[in-house]
Amino acid sequence: MKHVEEFVKKYLALAKKTGSKYQLPYLTVLAQAALETGWGKSVKGNNFFGIKDSSLINEGVVETKTHEYENGEKKIIKDEFEGFASPESCFDFYGKFVYARFPHAAKVTTDCIDYVIALQSKPKAMYATDPLYVSKITKIISMISNVDKQPIKIEYSMIPGYVDIAEKDLMSIPVTDKDSRLDEVPTTLEDKEIKTTKVKEK
Question: How many CA atoms lie within 13 Å of 32's alpha carbon, on the beta-carbon side?
């Protein structure tokens, strides 16, 4: 669990800042970053969230191999992902990205599990194509909360389609692929005035 502790220590503050600014559950934000980068071992262009190249920000483009799931089949592809000037820039953009692309999920501000379920709730607008995405993020949330010394109680039986995944299988995960093409998002995105009330994690 050393690399889990190191990842949490290094990026927890950024996740909390994003959670507070955009009213998103920081545990889920950090869990997504962990899954997308293999606990920080595979970070291309400071992109911690598998966000594909978009017109919403222009800090660079990174072409890399990734994978998608199509009809349950895993495929390896090459795609262009957004590049960021720094981890801070990426974490901040993630909040804007969620409000633009997944406004229904952005309304789930307090429950970290309900939030990731919401991200995957619309078949044509899911955050990830991985059918086990909710299960993986849920397990990682549990791991992170223990390191953060704020363990949360998760009702696994209440999570639709939950599949238990061993922690050892989440220790070294390559960048997961997203279906985040932003084809329904406006070409410009102005900063919104969002309350900065601290998010309560359950």
Answer: 33
> Does the annotation mark 73 as catalytic?
no
pTM of the complete model beyond 0.70: yes
Exactly one of 5, 59, 68, 179 is catalytic; name it. 68
CB 153 within 8 A of CB 44: no
Ranges of each domain in the chain? 2-170
What DSSP string describes 73-126?
Answer: EEEEEEEEEE--SSHHHHHHHHHHHHHHH-HHHHT--S-HHHHHHHHTS-TTS-
Do residues 152 and 145 make contact, with C-beta atoms less than 8 angstroms apart? yes
179 included as an active-site residue: no
Tokens representing 104 are 């229904």
Phi/psi zone of residue 136: left (φ > 0), alpha (ψ -120 to 50 degrees), beta? Answer: alpha
Yes or no: domain 2-170 corresponds to CATH 1.10.530.10: yes
Exactly one of 36, 53, 82, 92 is catalytic; name it. Answer: 92
List the pLDDT tens digit at each of the 202 positions of the chain. 788 999 999 999 999 999 999 999 999 999 999 999 999 998 888 999 988 855 556 656 665 655 555 666 666 655 577 889 999 999 999 999 999 999 999 999 889 999 999 999 998 889 998 999 999 999 999 999 999 888 888 999 999 899 998 887 887 555 444 433 333 333 334 433 333 333 344 4
